[in-house]
Amino acid sequence: MNTSLEEFLLPGGASINALPKISLHDHLDGGLRPQTIIELADTIGLDVPSTDAAALGAWFADQSNSGSLVDYLKTFDVTTAVMQTREGLIRVAHEFVQDLAVDGVIYGEIRWAPEQHLTRGLTLDQVVEAVQEGIESGIDEAAEFGSTIRIGQLITAMRHANRGLEIAELAVRHRGNGVVGFDIAGAELGFPARNHLAAFDYLAKEFMPVTVHAGEADGLGSIRGALFDGRALRLGHGVRLAEDIVIGREDDDNTYVTLGPVAQWVRDREIALELSPSSNLQTGAIAAWGDDLLDHPFDLLYQLGFRVTVNTDNRLMSDTSLSQELALLSDAFGYDIDDLEVFQLNAAQSAFLPLEEREELADAVVAGFEEA
């Protein structure tokens, strides 16, 4: 089991890595190990930008720092290409779980789009079963090393394609085999959630939880669509919700904040924001506020009482881990261990699990932070 993850410490010396964490927004095809890409590519005769793991990892990070979601997504052509066989999917899912466990994640939801893994003859059901096999073997191996982790699959449909209902039916079909929810992802601008209304209607009738990528490469209209067409219980990123928040100044000493109707709805309903700081910088999602982490609306949303959660989005492309994302936020905004606990409790409360299991997850978070 890979144990080479960099350690991150809070100012008081507590290890962020050792804290129990929950990962809600983590893409399977964005979390491969560079060496695994090289080896899988070799087995299928695929050329990759480098056959040196360190150089390949650097290539992904460099290519992803584009300031554009569309350009950022092009790097996935490489990762999905090596995830077209049963063996490749099993290995990637297995290692994905291992890497989360090493990072102190106790519950993770892995999102991925089965429709992107069919070029070598596998069916939709077969790819879901292969990923679940890898997840379960990863959990078992983590347990051998003393780590307890739970994993759920988020089955994702691509926004620009027309298979939403088919993928929704796939998700429901496998809800007893590791699937906990549904998502739509991919190019956001120009591909509204309403294009998949039949899928969302079906999911609502089947009581399947939904999260929707929105408020990343498009603004409030996209968030509205996620909420009211998609019936989203969480927003994938949702960072541009801050466009619906007005900060004014009464005088030199006093400011005021006004929430627009969309922001008010999201806050009052405690709809979780799956914020991913490093990724949001890379894709230009926070360009309206600046190009540095200090410009990220994360702290504004947190201070105003939104249910913020911290996520990696794509660990390979952002060269990051959940511990690193928490460390970056701590450095930028002066957060301490109590703040980090709030973020994990927010995630526990927003997990696509039954109420009793969410409460157990929250108890595990509290216990782990008390021991830190």
UniProtKB/TrEMBL annotation:
<comment type="similarity">
    <text>Belongs to the metallo-dependent hydrolases superfamily. Adenosine and AMP deaminases family.</text>
</comment>
<keyword id="KW-0546">Nucleotide metabolism</keyword>
<dbReference type="InterPro" id="IPR006330">
    <property type="entry name" value="Ado/ade_deaminase"/>
</dbReference>
<keyword id="KW-0862">Zinc</keyword>
<dbReference type="InterPro" id="IPR001365">
    <property type="entry name" value="A_deaminase_dom"/>
</dbReference>
<keyword id="KW-0479">Metal-binding</keyword>
<dbReference type="GO" id="GO:0009117">
    <property type="term" value="P:nucleotide metabolic process"/>
</dbReference>
<dbReference type="Pfam" id="PF00962">
    <property type="entry name" value="A_deaminase"/>
</dbReference>
<dbReference type="GO" id="GO:0046103">
    <property type="term" value="P:inosine biosynthetic process"/>
</dbReference>
<dbReference type="GO" id="GO:0005829">
    <property type="term" value="C:cytosol"/>
</dbReference>
<dbReference type="GO" id="GO:0006154">
    <property type="term" value="P:adenosine catabolic process"/>
</dbReference>
<dbReference type="GO" id="GO:0004000">
    <property type="term" value="F:adenosine deaminase activity"/>
</dbReference>
<dbReference type="InterPro" id="IPR032466">
    <property type="entry name" value="Metal_Hydrolase"/>
</dbReference>
<feature type="domain" description="Adenosine deaminase">
    <location>
        <begin position="20"/>
        <end position="366"/>
    </location>
</feature>
<keyword id="KW-0378">Hydrolase</keyword>
<dbReference type="GO" id="GO:0046872">
    <property type="term" value="F:metal ion binding"/>
</dbReference>
<dbReference type="GO" id="GO:0043103">
    <property type="term" value="P:hypoxanthine salvage"/>
</dbReference>
<protein>
    <recommendedName>
        <fullName>adenosine deaminase</fullName>
        <ecNumber>3.5.4.4</ecNumber>
    </recommendedName>
</protein>
